[in-house]
Amino acid sequence: MRFTGIAFQMGLTIYAGNWLGSWLDTKYNSDKYESVVTLLAVFLSMYLVISQVIKLSKD
Predict the structure, then answer these.
(1) SS3 state at 5
(2) Which domain does 38 fall in, by range?
């Protein structure tokens, strides 16, 4: 049950990155922002998950 919140946080972070990239693509009439920002969001969410799991394992 502890890791359910972490999974939702990861999904929300990736979704927000995808939405931001899509918005940037539309605003600047491009096709590169969505994939770049989504990939950065995946790395950010993985970092957040790993740091939270390490913190939980120390407790």
Answers:
(1) helix
(2) 2-58
Tens-place pLDDT, residues 27-51: 999 999 999 999 999 999 999 999 9
CA distances from 45 to 12, 13, 57 (A): 9, 6, 18
Vertex 36 angle, CA 31 and 39, to 5°: 135
Q: How many domains does the structure of the chain reveal?
A: 1
Q: What pTM was computed for the model?
A: 0.85
Please state, in angstroms and rounded to a whole number, the distance separating the CA atoms of residues 55 and 8: 18
Confidence of residue 5 (pLDDT cuts 50, 70, 90): confident
- In the chain, which ranges are continuous DSSP H helix? 2-28, 33-58
